[in-house]
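Input:
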Amino acid sequence: MPIGRRRVLEGLLAIAAAAFVPASTHAQAGLLARRIPSSGETMPVVGLGSWITFNVGDDTALMDECANVMAAFFAAGGRMIDSSPMYGSSQSVIGYGLAKLGNLESLFSADKVWTSGQDGPRQLERSRQFWGVPRFDLVQVHNLIDWQQHLETLTGMKAAGKVRYVGVTTSEGRRHDLLEEIMRMQPLDFVQFTYNVVDREAEQRLLPLAEDRGIAVIVNRPFQQGALTRRLRGENLPPWAKEIGVTTWAQFILKYIISHPAVTVAIPATTSVDHVRENMDAARAILPDARMRARMVSYVQAL
Amino acid sequence: MSQWWTYRPEDMLLFSPRVYWRMFELQNASVWPFQLVTFGAGLLMLGLATKRANGNERWIAFTLAFLWVFVGWTFLWHRYATINWAISYVAPLFLLQSVLLLIAGIVPRALVFEGRGLTSWSGMALASTGLFFYPVLLPAFGSKWEQAQIFGIAPDPTAIGTVGLLLMARGRLRWSLFPVPVLWCLVSGLTLWTMGEATAWLPIAAVALALATCAWAAVRAS
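Output:
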């Protein structure tokens, strides 16, 4: 069988992607995975956020829809689900989904503490009960609120085996100076911030610093809360998109994010089973190399 | 909240429009056919306020007091607060409004429905908006009929209807009954505006009309 030019190119890109991805492909579902630097544990590069999408109150029809999204996420090989006490009913809806889906060993539970320093332990226990998990894998200080006291508490909990990883979060480009200072001074496992093909400030300092310090990176709001995908919806994908296995704008955006070598996992949120499958497909096959990433930025900027 | 000035109104929106509108559908389904009672109570209050007969104000105040605590408890506390934690701080204001209305119903001449002129007509227009216009307005903008917001069941028409009835009244305690419904109209208008809903102007316009009418009446009286 003759080997076409496209196949050769795909092969070359796959080699480039393998160099970008330090961890091996996630065994069960063919998902690309990265290692958490502080432990070596592997994590599929696409997770599941819950901001707005899982805040459905006690509406059982919508709670079941969320459970279906979770089921599709786990079926596709996903692990990390992220939430916060700030997200309304999202934590209890996740708990509802987990109870409905049964015991999920693959779950990586990532939550946050979002209260005064003194109230942290009480809020964490309440959050844990909402999720219905024996302990959280990761607890992050939400938007750096009372971060010193919370980090002290969380570090103690980690030492006692009550939580596996500790991190801090921000979003939409807020407080990057302080975040950078904390990343330099504190023994963090994870850091979470916003990064995508149009919000690329993190490429200047935060992502290189995370790589240098061995801190895993969670990327939130990859689609700018839907604004980016809505903006691009009417535009054509570039003709070379298929070279990196991209068939939709959502995959284009996610591929750009997860192909940065310092990014551990991106956490798009969705209410749609089709969208969660589409997002997970972005974590399969090849990733763009540095040249292709620059091309992706130029293409979006020109639109 | 750290660096609160960097937050936009949409950053405070914790829920999707779909979930917001579903709340009214669930509320309507859970209390049906109580909508007929609250609508009938609204009609009766509008009629009593128009007749300006002595003693009517007590029944209007008591009925409104019940509706405010009902909406605050069944909708705000048990439904809206589950998707918006800030509402758990607003719901007690509905109880406060109910208590104030009860007091207004007990204290002699706290509310007197004997007004005439522009203020009274504006009040009637607003009360009619809450009672008749609001339930049909939203379906006209594309919402399902099951999601219609009905006076005494949903907070916006209840607040607008109450502002209207209060504008039709005079009395010693009338002014103390305005802040909570006016505040709710502003909160709801801001929420709908943040959601990008075309109907966001309605609760804001209701407050603007009420304030303009009161200002006009004050200027005329001076």
